[in-house]
Design a protein that fits this description.
Layout (H helix, E strand, L loop, with lengths): L1 E5 L3 H10 L4 E5 L5 H9 L11 E4 L2 H4 L4 E4 L6 H8 L8 E4 L12 H7 L7 E5 L4 H4 L5 E7 L2 H11 L4 E5 L3 H23 L6 H18 L16 H6 L4 H10 L10 H14 L5 H11 L4 H9 L11
Parallel strand pairs: 1-2, 1-4, 2-3, 4-5, 5-6, 7-8
Antiparallel strand pairs: 6-7
Helix pairs in contact: 8-9, 8-11, 8-12, 12-13, 13-14
C-alpha cells in the first residue's frame, strides 16, 4: 500500500516510520517547517531514524497522490489545511485522523470540520489510543483503536496497519473517540498541575470524574457513553496523566511552577473547545471549567481546586 502522512512533527514522523515497516510512505511537511528541514538534512529527529522507503516532500500534490492520507498536524491548523485541500481532487481518498483535539474557536471536532468542507463521512477514520514515540521505537508494544463512521473502513485499516508493535481494536464511535481523546489531554494538564503542587494522590478522583464528564458530553453529541471508558480516553490515562513523556502533563506541571513548557500541548486549546461544547449542550464539566478559569481567567489555582475537590457530599454513583 502507498500511504501519505501529512505532518512531520514528533507523532507524524513516528507514524510514517511505523507504517513504512510494511508500506511505502510519503511524509509531508511545509517548506518552512524546521522538522522537515532536519529530516531532510539528517534523516532523523530526536526520536528515530527514518526508514529508507519514506519519501519526504513539501508538495501537497505529491502527498495527495496516494489513496490513504494520514493526518497528524496541530488541531488548530486543520481548518486552514482543509482550505488548501479543496484545491485538489480528494473525492476517493481515505483520511485517517491521528489528532486529539477540538477546535478552540468553534468547539468543532476534526471530522466535523472535514465533513463541512466536503469530505464524505464514510471516508474518515480516527486512529487514537495510548503510546509514546519513545516507547514504541524501543520496541515496547501497546494497544490502539481505529474509529470511523464506516465500520468497514475501520476493519480495513486495522488489517493493514496491525503489527506486533501495535494491536488495534475496531471502533465504531468516532464522536466518542474524538471527544475522549481530546478530553484526556485536558485531564493530562490537570494531572500535571496536581503533580506540581504535590497532590498527585487526587488523580484517582480526577480520573473517575473526568471520564464521566467526557462520557456525558459524548452522549449529548450523539456518541456512545461507554466509549469514554475505552482506549481513546480512560485507556490512555497512563500515557497522558502519569508518563514523563506526556506533553500535556508536563505543561500542567510547569504551569503551576511558573515555568514555560517549550513544546506543543494540545490540551490547552482543547479546554476552550470543550468549554464551548459544555455550554452549548448544557453539560456540567467542573474539571474543564476549573482549568479554563485557572489558565485563561487567571483565577487562583488553589481556590479552584478547593472548589473542585471540596464540593458537596454525594453518593459515589450518584450524578457527580
Amino acid at each position: 500500500m502507498d500511504i501519505s502522512v501529512l505532518g512531520c512533527g514528533r507523532w507524524g514522523t513516528f507514524l510514517a516510520w511505523y507504517l513504512a515497516d510494511k508500506h511505502n510512505v510519503t511524509l509531508w511537511g511545509r517548506e518552512n517547517s524546521q522538522h522537515l528541514k532536519t529530516l531532510r538534512e539528517t534523516g532523523k529527529n530526536e526520536y528515530l531514524t527514518l526508514r529508507e522507503n519514506i519519501n519526504l516532500t513539501s508538495e501537497l500534490n505529491i502527498a495527495l497522490q496516494n489513496e490513504i492520507i494520514v493526518i497528524s498536524i496541530l488541531t488548530q491548523e486543520m481548518s486552514n489545511l482543509m482550505q488548501e485541500l479543496k484545491n485538489y481532487d480528494i473525492t476517493n481518498k481515505k483520511f485517517v485522523l491521528c489528532m486529539k483535539g477540538i477546535e478552540s474557536t468553534s468547539g468543532k471536532r476534526i471530522s466535523e470540520i472535514m465533513i463541512e468542507n466536503g469530505v464524505d463521512a464514510n471516508n474518515i477514520a480516527l486512529w487514537v489510543g495510548p503510546g509514546h514515540v519513545q516507547n514504541f521505537v524501543n520496541g515496547t508494544p501497546n494497544c490502539m483503536i481505529i474509529h470511523s463512521y464506516n465500520e468497514e473502513l475501520s476493519k480495513y485499516l486495522v488489517e493493514e496497519f496491525k503489527s506486533n508493535l501495535i494491536r488495534f481494536y475496531i471502533g465504531n464511535d468516532i464522536i466518542g473517540g474524538e471527544i475522549g481523546s481530546a478530553g484526556k489531554n485536558v485531564l493530562g494538564i490537570a494531572a500535571g498541575m496536581l503533580d506540581g503542587i504535590n497532590m498527585s494522590c487526587l488523580k484517582g478522583a480526577l480520573m473517575s470524574r473526568g471520564t464521566y464528564e467526557m462520557a456525558k458530553l459524548t452522549q449529548a453529541l450523539g456518541g456512545k457513553f461507554i466509549t469514554a471508558y475505552g482506549l481513546s480516553h480512560l485507556g490512555d490515562f497512563e500515557a497522558t496523566l502519569f508518563s514523563a513523556f506526556s506533553h500535556n502533563r508536563m505543561w500542567g506541571e510547569q504551569f503551576v511552577k511558573g515555568e514555560t513548557f517549550g513544546k506543543s500541548a494540545e490540551g490547552v486549546g482543547n479546554i476552550k473547545g470543550l468549554m464551548l461544547l459544555s455550554q452549548k449542550y448544557n453539560i456540567n464539566m467542573p474539571i474543564t471549567n476549573a482549568l479554563y478559569n485557572i489558565i485563561f481567567l487567571n483565577h487562583d489555582l488553589q481556590d479552584e481546586f478547593d472548589k473542585l475537590f471540596g464540593r458537596e457530599t454525594k453518593k459515589e454513583f450518584q450524578e457527580f
